[in-house]
Amino acid sequence: MQKVNNSKTPEEATHIVALVRQLVSAINGNATEEVLPSSQAKQVRLALKILSSRISSRKQSYVDEQVIVERLKRSLAKANRIRDAVRLLELVNSLKQLCDNHQLTQVLYFLEELAYHEQALSHSKQQRLANQLSDLSLDSTLSNSSNPLKVSNPLLDSAIVDSNQVKNLESRGNEDTSHDDSKPNNTVREDAFQEYIVKENEAYEISEAILVREAIYAVQGIEGKYVKYQEKNDEYAVAPDIGVPQPVRELIRRICRMGWLYKHLKQQLQELQSNPSCGTISRSFCGAIENELDEYYEVLAEVEAQAGMTNFENIENAGLLAAKGRDDLTLRKLFVWCQEPLEKLKWLSVLTEAAYNTKGGALLSILHEFTLHGDKSIQSLVCSILRKASVPLFDAVRKWILDGELDDPYEEFFIASRQGITAEDIWDKKFYIRQSMVPSFLSMESHLISSILLAGKTVVFLRKCCSDGSWLSDKFREPLFREKPLGYNQVDSLRVFVQAACEASSNRLKFLLFEKFLLKGHCIALRNLILLGQGDFVQNLLDSLAADLNEPSSDLYRNNLLGTLDASLRSSSAAITIASALSAEDSMMDNFTNEVLDRMDVRLLHPSSGAQGWDVFSLDYRFDVPLTSIFTKDVMEMYRKISRFLWYLKRSNYLLCTTWNTHFLSSSQDYKHTKLEMKPIARTLYNKIHFVRMKMMHFVENFQYYVMFEVLEVSWNELLNKLQKAQDMNELILAQRLFISKILEKLMLKEKFRSQYQRIRQLLDLTVRYHSFMRTWAMHKSIEDLDFSTEMEKRDENLLSKLVQIETQYDTIFEEFLQDLQTIEKDEIRALLFRLNFNGYYSSKMPTASQIARESHQHLSS
Question: What GO biological process terms does the UniProt entry carry, in alphabetical order (predicted)?
Fold first, then answer.
């Protein structure tokens, strides 16, 4: 509809007035009359005012049937025209039967524009116009074809106003106006409001109070008489056969979403709790959700009290009770109230859905992710649930740290244990961290998780391996441990608790290992006996076993070797050395000496064909619990590997010393035969024997010095310092592993030094060959003293050629060994290289060797 422009020409204005007169006459059935009655003249003037007004100047923001109806009702209610608002609803219902949706929207919009224009009129004219609009009725028996004048306006197409009705409307408006003027203003408003309430409740098949009660039942997941659960749409809604306007149905449907969420949430909780794998943390989570629902029930009880449901003797009379002036709950108030609980139920349902098929620490990790939500209320809700759900986790942490117990039938805790582990492997293999169950709010504290594992392992180790549970029970009764609050968002408190418990148990374990089980004494025994650091013991053992070990390996008997080992130990000063290092009492050292003798053992390797006793003999040292956790099987295997290598080195040195004795005695006897002159070949052989032996002694003694002082002694001092500074069992184990690992590396026994190790073994094998050669030479020399035949000269030539072959092979391997040492960038190896080529003898054959040696010398000097 467009307004009349003030710039219209007089002809156009006259034509518009004529059209309006024809329209009014056609509506009233007086098409032939030229002079209109006074009532119709008023209608013409009203129509012209509307056409010439600014009624359509307002911008149409949103055209929707329900929205426009609500705006009209609110506008009438603000003007205290309650009956007109009720009449407006009847008009809308009648229009729905005659108009399609588009026409109905346009008609309602036109009425809204009239209401807006009406606000500019005076109070008396505004009241009279409102009465006329509210009493408009539709004549369904008339059709558009019966009208002589076809009008395109939607309202005029469907609404036919009878002239008598207009007269009655005017007279009734005047009566109402005079009657209203005679009453006090407050009384008129009060009576109109009470009348509106009664009429509104009677306008539906059921009253709003009943619908409120039904909606309150629905939000608790309970079906009512009129609001039921519809499985087809999976929602609570008013039954289709009940006469309730569509806006009210939609409002109830939105309110009842909370009931659907409540029902869905209860089903989720029931499924979680009925799951066989539902553990303590999952049950605590369900309990936290139910606690939140308890608050929901309390709010519902307040709403029911506000709705007056507990005071209605007969709910069918709720509308009459409301008419008496009760300020009860309406659907709109209930909808506004539902928003906050609805949001809460949504998030509770989301949390429960996310927790499905998860348990333990993984469940807590999922909940913790929701604490990163930007909404403070959601953060508060999730933190409250997480704080309650994590209680079993922190109870398990406390029980594990203080008692060393794991009660985790559902595998929810992040500390787990393996079954079938012996006491020797309790520390290393029994317990481990189940990474999938570490909560995300603790996963960032990796050191804290390791400390929790360490504290519990220490308690278990003290109880089962050290038999020291009474001290722990007394120590952990202190309030610091039993009353320390632990929970979510208390990581600092947890850290202090774990650190205190771990420090107490670790200090106790370290005290027992050093004082009761003499850990340091066993370390000294390993260094002096297994690593052959006790010189007199090694020499006695070599002297005692040399004859037996020269025999084939198949002729060796372990019992005989053990007897020889025991005699060598008792005849050496090994026990005195250990006692002086420990500064222990005599009685304790006597017991410890006997214990060391009992622990020393002999191990025979699997012999190969033609092997001698030297090839299969190996020293061993046995440990019992709890020291087996430090000296594990792999650690002791590394000790035995080093011991066999050092034993082979000691054997080479021993054999070279033996050959020197043989050579010296033989030379002394030759000088006694002054009457006999030595043959040139014999003198050459004598010199060559001495020269080759000195070459080999040079390598063996310098390498032995390197082993004892550059490797063992330095590593031993580092081990003692680390043992003294160790704070827990892990550091003790790590110190021992680093000690033995460094020795393996410096002795070039690791796989990456395979080439250098092979050269060393070849050089040592050549010393054994040289010793065999010397035995052969000594035998020939004794025969030569008795027989001076020319055949002895040929034998010396053969021996000389064999010796030259050994020397040539030795020189070649030794030069290759020096070249291999140049590739190792380590200070210890450079020092060894300098000692082996200290005078640059091999520089001509190995150009870079002198440079390396010179650099090593400069490095050592600095």
Answer: cytoplasmic microtubule organization; meiotic cell cycle; microtubule nucleation; mitotic cell cycle; spindle assembly
